[in-house]
Amino acid sequence: MHKFFSAISIAATFAGPAAFAGAAEQNPKYPHHEPSTQPSGKMEHRKMAEDEEFASLDRNRDGRLAREEIPVDNPVAAQFEQLDVNKDGGLSKREFAKYRE
Fold first, then answer.
1. Residues 54 and 27 occupy one common structural domain
2. Are residues 24 and 53 in the same domain?
3. Whether residue 54 is found in the same domain as residue 89
4. Backbone angles phi, psi at 95, to 5 degrees
5. Does this model's pTM top 0.90?
6. Domain match, 17 and 45 both
7. Which of 4, 11, 75, 90 could make an S-S bridge to 64, C-beta 3.0–4.6 Å?
8. What is the pLDDT along the chain (101 residues), one digit of tens a residue?
9. Euclidean distance between CA atoms 65 and 95, whole angstroms
10. How far is CA 37 from the centre of its chain?
11. C-alpha distances in Å from residue 86, one per residue of 89, 92, 100
């Protein structure tokens, strides 16, 4: 009889946490999943909008924005010197993206 209760005690000790872990996976408040490494939909949409705006301003399609390509009334024109970090006289996609941050 003593062996029977010992066996049940040991089984309950090891089965208890497993039972709770299974319940946590099934509870929608505590979903069990790995963190996503994929960009969110908002980030993806913002990146696409940046790319489209950059492409629309890059009239000669050389992959950089010269000061002459940016209309005077565009807010980027007023910040051109600040955005041109490497001072090469043009904005790369990375430098242009800083404007949107």
1. no
2. no
3. yes
4. -65, -40
5. no
6. no
7. 90
8. 545 445 455 555 555 555 555 444 455 665 565 555 555 567 687 788 888 999 999 999 999 999 999 999 999 999 999 999 999 999 999 999 988 77
9. 10
10. 7
11. 8, 10, 18
